[in-house]
Every structure is written in structure tokens, then in C-alpha cells.
């Protein structure tokens, strides 16, 4: 996987990750992490009778785990 490949000194590596990767993968050499504190959560709209993904702030428990 390219995420584990070394990066030349004159480059910066940017990694975008899902919730699964954040909790189960350790990537060596990480210096900074930017976490917007948001997650896509499944929600149900009874008026439309549909489920959808909405962007919502993470819970305190999720923030501590990250």
C-alpha cells in the first residue's frame, strides 16, 4: 500500500482516512493530524420514509478515541 511507502524529504504526504482506518491502522512518520470533528451518520426521515447520511459533529466519546 502506498500509504506505508517512504516519502522523499522535499514532499509532504497527505492521507485521507475513514473512521475504520483511524481506529485500526498505525501509519509511521505522522507529524500532524487535522480532524474536523465531523462524521457522516445515518439518519431516518419519517416524512420521506428514507434513510440518508448527514454530516454531524462527533460525540465526546468519539473525540476521545480519535
TrEMBL record:
ATP-binding as UniProt keyword: yes
GO cellular component assignments: nucleolus
Protein name per UniProt: RNA helicase
Native organism: Cannabis sativa (Hemp)
Record's keyword terms, sorted: ATP-binding, Helicase, Hydrolase, Nucleotide-binding
GO BP, one annotated term: positive regulation of transcription by RNA polymerase I
Catalytic activity: ATP + H2O = ADP + phosphate + H(+)
EC number assigned by the record: 3.6.4.13
GO molecular function, one term: double-stranded RNA binding
